[in-house]
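Dear H.,

Thanks for agreeing to be a second pair of eyes. The structure we're designing against is below in token form, covering all 284 positions.
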């Protein structure tokens, strides 16, 4: 047993198209955008596409599905205009997941853009509570992604993630996505068994491993502690194979989606190679 290896797949031509692309690579989990990630507005999912999506999930057996939200959304923003666009956009992201039956929506915990860490965290909590209150029927769980800590982004420490969760009224609606590149860039080392144990012990005591629902598997082009977010192929970057060996052999993570967000090529060879590399690290 190990992680359920997968990758972020293109939904170009319709969300239903992502499944066949995942099947082609024998993925066990899959992440997608449910709309254009660089635009605020999206037309609603049409019922035929939704039906084809459900059929494709059943046909391919790829049931460990995750949506990543739009990069424009900033639920921690101190600016009323940004917040005014982010809150409805995020509610729409949750709604699209509900329609597609996708349990997890990954989001970055925003950026305070000058208001300060504390104010940013407080605003993120208020935003999420407002959204939750407006859609009590939603079943989608929001996963806060650990970040590299670039600029004024929040989520660079496990404590910042925990502080946000602390503010959420309904804690059953929130979890965490750990990105291997981001935590490494943020200063959490795990390249030796001892470092890995210490980092995961910190995660357990500060956030709780029961909150960890998805792992993003990316190597890092930038050095340890750089606070820069640049993904590299597994084993090619500053983390190296030993770091990934720890994650794929941790029995506490068995079955959790482990999703690549590494550079694509049209033939899918990069994804194939990265997954083969990860599988090769799993101890027999
Ligand atoms: Zn992300
Ligand atoms: Mn990520
Ligand atoms: Mn990243």
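And this is the sequence the design step returned. I haven't edited it by hand at all.
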């Amino acid at each position: 047993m190990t992680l359920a290896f997968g990758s972020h797949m293109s939904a170009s031509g319709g969300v239903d198209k992502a499944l066949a692309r995942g099947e082609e690579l024998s993925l066990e989990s899959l992440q997608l955008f449910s709309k254009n990630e660089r635009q605020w507005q999206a037309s609603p999912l049409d019922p035929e596409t939704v039906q084809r999506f459900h059929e494709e999930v059943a046909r391919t057996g790829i049931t460990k599905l995750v949506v990543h939200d739009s990069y424009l959304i900033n639920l921690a923003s101190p600016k009323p205009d940004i917040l005014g666009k982010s809150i409805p956009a995020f509610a729409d992201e949750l709604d699209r997941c509900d329609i597609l039956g996708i349990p997890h929506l990954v989001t970055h915990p925003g950026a305070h853009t000058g208001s300060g860490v504390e104010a940013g965290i407080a605003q993120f909590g208020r935003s999420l509570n407002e959204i939750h209150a407006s859609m009590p029927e939603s079943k989608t769980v929001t996963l806060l992604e650990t970040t590299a800590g670039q600029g004024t982004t929040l989520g660079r420490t496990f404590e910042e993630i925990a502080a946000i969760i602390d503010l959420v009224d309904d804690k059953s609606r929130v979890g965490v996505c750990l990105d291997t590149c981001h935590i490494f860039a943020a200063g959490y080392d795990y390249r030796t068994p001892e470092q890995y144990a210490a980092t995961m012990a910190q995660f357990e005591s500060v956030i709780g491993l029961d909150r960890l629902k998805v792992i993003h598997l990316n190597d890092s082009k930038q050095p340890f502690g750089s606070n820069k977010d640049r993904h590299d192929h597994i084993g090619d970057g500053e983390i190296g194979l030993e770091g990934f060996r720890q994650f794929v052999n941790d029995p506490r993570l068995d079955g959790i989606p482990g999703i690549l967000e590494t550079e694509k090529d049209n033939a899918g060879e990069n994804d194939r190679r990265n997954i083969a590399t990860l599988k090769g690290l799993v101890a027999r």
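Two observations from my side: The longest helix spans residues 80-100. Residues 179, 181-182, 229, 231 surround manganese (II) ion (ligand 3) (CB under 6 Å).

Warmly,
E.
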